[in-house]
Amino acid sequence: VPPGKPLAHVPSSATIGSRAVLRCSEAQGSPPPTFRWYKDGTVLPQDPKSSPTFRNSSYSLDPVTGELIFEPVGGSDTGDYHCEASNNVGSPQKSDVFRMEA
């Protein structure tokens, strides 16, 4: 079963230096989909240090649970976030876009 449109839970504001959890969920897909997160239209790599764009960010990303955890939140983490669910059946589905202000 292809995934439906995922739901992104993004805090509208996050305190710099604190912990922020962004969640992505999708209930229809079978097999259960994996999740990717995007910031300002750019996919977030699994390891922020591997990318010049995100090397100043400190986060962990779980493609299975859909959790994106910033610890700590930095000023550069402000942006527009959305997630994408895919399970190799049908096409990947994107969530709405939500802004998080650090």
From TrEMBL:
Annotated keywords: Cell junction, Cell membrane, Disulfide bond, Glycoprotein, Immunoglobulin domain, Membrane, Phosphoprotein, Repeat, Signal, Tight junction, Transmembrane, Transmembrane helix
Keyword Lipoprotein: no
Polar residues: bias regions: 48-58
GO biological process, one term: establishment of endothelial intestinal barrier
GO CC list: bicellular tight junction; plasma membrane
Membrane topology: Single-pass type I membrane protein
Subcellular location: Cell junction, Tight junction; Cell membrane
InterPro entries linked: F11R (IPR042456), Ig-like_dom (IPR007110), Ig-like_dom_sf (IPR036179), Ig-like_fold (IPR013783), Ig_sub (IPR003599), Ig_sub2 (IPR003598)
Major location category of this protein: other
The Ig-like domain, residue ranges: 2-99
Positions of region (Disordered): 24-58
Similarity section: Belongs to the immunoglobulin superfamily.
Subunit-level organization: Interacts with the ninth PDZ domain of MPDZ. Interacts with the first PDZ domain of PARD3. The association between PARD3 and PARD6B probably disrupts this interaction. Interacts with ITGAL (via I-domain). Interacts with CD151.
PANTHER family assigned: JUNCTIONAL ADHESION MOLECULE A (PTHR45113)
Name listed for the protein in its UniProt record: Junctional adhesion molecule A
Source organism of the structure: Sapayoa aenigma
Gene name of the encoded protein: F11r
